[in-house]
Predict the 3D structure of the following.
Amino acid sequence: MEGLADWPMRQLLTEQAGFDWTVSEFIRVTDQLLPKRVFYRSCPELQHPTKTPIRLQLLGSQPDAMAANAERALELGSYGLDLNFGCPSKTVNNSCGGAMLLKSPQSIEEIITAVRRSVPSNQVLSAKVRLGFYSINEIHDILSAVINGGANQVVIHARTKEQGYRPPAFWWKIRELTKPINVIVNGEIWNSHDYWQALSQSHCQHAMLGRGVISDPDLIHKIRAMQLGQSFKPRSWLQMCQDLEQFVFLSRERMPEKYIAGRLKQWLKHLGRHWPEARACLERIRTLTQADSILEQAKEMDIQQDHSL
């Protein structure tokens, strides 16, 4: 979710949807304690709390440095702490971070052990992993390392690093695991049906949503309505355009204007999985470089389609 679930996106979605908690983009840790401004820049919620608790995510491979930065994150108000062992980015992996550590469960255990010493027992320490680097069967050793290190929650993206984000997600593989800690299923959850299938196949009680809720901001509401046996009326494209406008407004508080059009196109591309209006808009804005011009084009889309899935 790096470069996608940034502060403007989190701010907009968590104001509308009923998330239990959310996770920041990862903060890259090398070999030193980072200054407070790095945490605040990545996670403004630390200074301006929202109604949805935010958990800082750290990514790195040096146990002592990870522990020191974990302690600082908690001092600044993070709602527990999350460690990223799942990012498949080549840039991250070339620096021995993220999913590259799935090759070495012992290293994962050493990092978590060091961080656990800095995280009080009343604070949640979670780890984000994948089923493996090459094989989905690697998850047994990976999960053992997470548990032995002292984490009390793990989010499992139900694919390997090599599989990246290609469907399917192997939710059923999580069902095979002994679960002495809270295991949360993640990956390829795009709609309410996927959500219930992920829980059913994995035998997990909770799921983490990522790209699914970026593509359909109503997804949380649809899931909760289904839980209660209620109907839910999804937002109209006009209402979605209001969210796009708010996203641009929030983005202007945090980034130069030249980057906002790109972020807006990126979101429209994800919305295109669900909204035909977004797909149509993308065809018309390829050469546009100003966010306001893109918004004008989005408002002109009037395709009618049922978004009740």
